[in-house]
Amino acid sequence: MHKEPIILGIESSCDDTSAAILKGRKVLSNEIANQNIHSLYGGVVPEIASREHQKNIVPVVDIAIKKSGIKKSDIDAVAFTKGPGLMGSLLVGNSFAKSFAMGMQIPIISINHMKAHILAHFIDEGNKQPNFPFLCLTVSGGHTQIVQINSFNEMKIIGTTIDDAAGEAFDKSAKILKLEYPGGPLIDKYAKQGKKNAYKFGKPKVKNLDFSFSGLKTSILYKINNEVKKNPSFIEENIEDLCASIQYSIINILLEKLEKAIEQTQIKQIAIAGGVSANSYLRSRLQHLSDDKKYDIYIPKFEYCTDNAAMIAIAGYYKYIEKKFSNLDEISQASLKF
Predict the structure, then answer these.
(1) pTM for this predicted structure
(2) Is the bond leading into 133 cis (omega within 30 degrees of zero)?
(3) For the chain, which domains are there?
(4) b or e along 17-42 (b: 16 or more beta carbons within 10 Å of the residue's beta carbon)?
(5) What was the pLDDT predicted at 1?
(6) 3 state SS of 7
């Protein structure tokens, strides 16, 4: 019997430096160093992000290896994020992965960050896993996609955003509401106490299964600015209702398109992935959909929703067993295609 490969995963696409060790599909460790410094600037500053990755990468990998209980020499391959992401941040992970692999004389495996979000569903923690084919609503700060997954290596985008991502709509709305960065989780928190129909915002009209969020963002901005002119304390006095209404608008757009995709493909196995899949309202709405329509819904554990190296390592595992290794001249790509 073949031994399960031990994969070191490296994720550095944005502002979190993460390293994970997986043995087969089981997580032995998954460490993340956050960069809280960006909250001072109201968003991620690419130059600062790459410098922080340089500081964090060695200690984070060291902790991941120590916590996993394995020796460095036990690692069979290094999987790293090739893209998409911030170029400076990606380069740090790429360079470290190559250096480590050369030093240990093991293969490297380059990974598409968005595909890794989807494959996080196959991390083995006793959870039920989707059967092929399934649909995945992949929603993050930079991407909003509906993907049809036919196998571990065959994935097809059937709907995507034509402008901004849903995660960006959350963050920009939070900025308008003068909430701290990252604002998405704060909108989720305040929305729990608010009325979702308190305010109406513009709804995009986009064909097929594609999304648009720029018009919604503009509608939110105009509505709030107009109200603030009449009452300077408008935001503070109505923060919970505003958050609930904004969240309701964004999630509704996502779920309407997802339902349309289910209708068109007749696929009733539904997964979510990406940072926005941590949103509690999206999760509860999906659960209701599952109960009403008898869809099979797959929601990843909270720690595998946001950027993490365990998802990079699991994607690396599936490439490893097919011997799909990368060359040492592999370059990072900020706008890597799916």
Answers:
(1) 0.94
(2) yes
(3) 6-120+305-320 (3.30.420.40), 130-300 (3.30.420.40)
(4) bbbbbbbebebbbbbbbebeebeeeb
(5) 46
(6) strand
Which of 198-201's residues contact partners 24+ apart within 8 Å by CB, and which partners? Answer: 198/238, 198/241, 198/242, 198/244, 198/245, 199/223, 199/241, 199/242, 199/245, 199/246, 200/245, 201/245, 201/246, 201/249
What pLDDT sits at residue 44?
Answer: 74
Is 206 buried (19+), middle (13-18) or exposed (0-12) by CB count in 10 A? middle
Q: Which two tokens stand for residue 78?
A: 């290094």
In this structure, the strands spanning 77-83 and 108-112 are parallel
Give the SS3 label for residue 297. strand
For position 315, what pLDDT does the model report?
A: 98
Average pLDDT along the chain, 338 residues, taken 10 residues at a time: 88 95 98 76 77 94 98 98 97 98 98 97 93 96 94 96 94 94 92 97 92 95 96 98 98 96 97 93 94 93 93 98 96 95
**Is 81 strand, coil or helix?**
strand
**Burial of 337 by CB count in 10 Å (0-12 exposed, 13-18 middle, 19+ buried)?**
exposed
pLDDT value for 2: 63
Order across the sheet with 6-11: list the strands: 26-33, 17-23, 6-11, 77-83, 108-112
Q: What is the pLDDT of residue 160?
A: 97
Query: Which residue, 320, 326, 330, is CA-closest to 153?
Result: 320
What secondary structure does DSSP assign to 240-296, as a single string?
Answer: HHHHHHHHHHHHHHHHHHHHHHHHHH---EEEEESGGGG-HHHHHHHHHHHHHH--E
Which residue's entry shows tokens 């929305």?
191
Copy the structure tokens of residue 239: 């923060």
User: How far is Cα 202 from Cα 216, in angstroms, rounded to an integer?
Assistant: 5
